[in-house]
Amino acid sequence: MIRSHLNWAVALGVLCVLSLLIGARALPWSGLWQGSPEAWLTLTASRLPRLLALLVTGAGLAVCGLILQHIVRNRFVEPATTGGLDAAKLGILLALISLPDAGVGVRMFIALSVCLVSSLLFLALVRRLPAQQTVLVPVIGLMYGGVLSAVAEGYAYRHNLLQSMQGWLLGDFSKVVQGSYEVLYLSVPALLLSYLFAQRFTVVGMGEGIATSLGLNYPASVALGLVLVAVTVSATVISVGAIPFVGLVIPNLIALRHGDNLRRSLPWVALGGAVLLLVCDILGRLLIYPFEVPIGLTAGIVGGALFLGLLLWQRR
Amino acid sequence: MARHAPWALVVLLSGAFVLFGADFDMTYVIPRRLLRLGAMLVGGVCVAWSAITFQTLTGNRLLTPAVMGYEALYLLLQALLVLLLGSAGVVLLGAQGNVLLAASVMFGYSWVLHRWLLREGQHNLYFLLLVGLVLTLLLGSLTQFVQLKISPGEFSLLQGVSQTSFNRVQGAQLLVSALLVGALALLNRNQLNTLDVLALGRDQARSLGVDYPRVLRQQLALIAALVAISTSLLGPTAFMGVLVANLAYRLATSYRHRLTLALGSALAIVVFLIAQLLVEHLFNYKTTVGLLINLLCGGYFLVLLTRQRSHR
Amino acid sequence: MISVHDLHKHYGQRTVLDGISLSFPERRLTSLIGPNGAGKSTLLLMIGRLLEASAGEVRLAGQPIQRIASNAYARRVATLRQATELNLRLRVEELVEFGRFPYCGGRLHADDHRAVDQAIAFLGLDSLRQRYVDELSGGQRQMALLGMTIAQETDYLLLDEPLNNLDMRHAVQIMRALRRLCDERGCTVLLVVHDINFAASYSDHIVALKAGRVHCAGSVAEVVTETRLRALYELDFAISYSARGPLCNYFNPPRDLS
After folding, report:
1. If exposure means fewest CB atoms within 10 Å of the residue's CB, which of A7, A145, A215, B166 is most exposed?
2. Is this complex scored with an ipTM above 0.90?
3. Which residues of B touch A139 (CB under 8 A)?
């Protein structure tokens, strides 16, 4: 067990160093030693923020997926298949159009609220589904996201924002520099809180009946989970854009090995999410060097392939 | 009575659509509108037919073929065409070329998907749906990426084909589509009773002598063809199938595909006509048919979810 | 006659059926019994062609069933699966009419209507004829489904746990109907049943499966004995006999199970 912890820590370390090294401009290491201000600036203003943003986003999205899967009680949900990403997009659009001068804080708040309301609505819908339909939850979530997205597109169409809106939807870390991404750090407390309440989410995953009879305040726990998810998702969409599949693949892969007890699996899920995103980012930066493939795409392809593989493998 | 009302409505609304404010302009306005009406008729039949058949095969009334990723693939193809050929190239390719290309790509997609997933005699439709979900997300990301790479002018061209709209139809394309749909209907005529039996579920249908794998293959190919025709004619229609199919079940008060397919087609055409009339005369083109249909059908879909009758 | 020859079924590493060879007596009611996971339903579904065997074959009158066209097979063998979820709004009559599909492909002729009427009369479903299936109770719905199977007018009927979730009265109704099919119409009936007492009271022949193999097979008198049932279920049985037939009591064994 300790060995495997160690292996993962080493892997993460190597990936972090790689991530710092790779970029459109080679990082002059010698410059760092000599204290060259230019080299340090590249490191602190661009590479380091990017690395931190990647780690926080990866861990945050994977944990979001995990919490959603327990709340909805379906293995195949994540922010992209519960309308969460589309709701955040709609929220940002609302903020941009109705309060164009508002700061990132206000935008964040509006996106968060829309995201939360939409996930509450989705949960209410899903809970009304008869038992035999529950396998369809992710498909329904995708269609629900389609409805939200249709609303957003109609709104954007009237204000000629359609193409720029497409831009936010595809996660991209290349614009992350010092001063533009700090709102992401809001997901750090969300991550810590979800670890603190991990035990509760495990119980929530057993269903309302069992949870209530174990003395858990079910509605409060679900609400807490949804708030944590909304914070992370809207912070991510605002600062880097949407990234699919991280929340879907990582929890499923980790559950195969570490089971569904969140207290135990949550750190692994966070770590796995960070590693997956780092790998995707490094790939994206290398594929058409010196240009970049946005991470939304690489994560979509790598995550999608992993997920398909998982599905096929489980079917054996 | 309820069974004939939609057709009466189709006639009424078609008349209104073609004649309203046209001043009997036989040289341009009316022929143009007749062309669009034709697109609605053919497209409506395709949408309703593919959705109802798909729901019968999956045994589920909340699904449309769009969840298998067909429409996502179509959008990706269009974005790629714009990216690779530029707007001039797309114009050069022409509507026919585009339709044929889209149809063959979607056919190929459907063939590979089913070939790959349904081998070994396993026919787990739920698994198929999950794969469709993953592919939809994946194709969506790719499309967004391509969209970011093209210029704003080309984007608006792309926007034109990626939403439901009746304006890009051309005469020859409409004729080919109509003939194709007619041929498919003729070929499928004898399968309607088999579809009724399939609605009982896979096992019951098999024990009643239906050659399930063969019928499934045929019907999935048929759905691919219908979706290809309707998307290249009108653009993606996402939820519309859910709305149309469920209204048809309700009005038909019968499980027979003979009835539900006919009714569903009429309803789809009615929805198209209403959306077009609203956009032209109420909203003055401030919104698009595609958005209106998406909102209308999406809203109905959500209502339908909350109204799901639980069995027992 | 239906016979199976060295039938195997594997799911990956897991073996569900491990070399079964049997034949089922004609014009008799045969029950398949055994603990959960013994492979009873798997065997039945293979005979009904709803599952494919990994190895071995099933024969109908000496002919391997894979060589018979689906439609022709459906006129000779009818299968009713457990827990058929119907999300269709169908009347009982319409459901029963589906039983004629193998003959008429959905367009009913006079013969077909006669068969439907007979099936409905046979089960005494006349009063339910115009009711919607999704508004019936579980027992009535099972009767309606059985009606469809009977309208199929096959010589062989396969039923997978037809008594599942039924109350006692409906369970008895179904079993009596099956018994009558066998006695009055000369049908061969195969069913998977969990309740050993129903099996003992209504069957002619019993096949007991355990862990994918035939544990024992024979007449009721041969199979329903304390020693055989104890070995089959690993439970302590006491069998008492009365004018109404054998009664197996396993509910409250005097000793601990070990």
Report:
1. A215
2. no
3. 62-63, 67, 129, 132-133
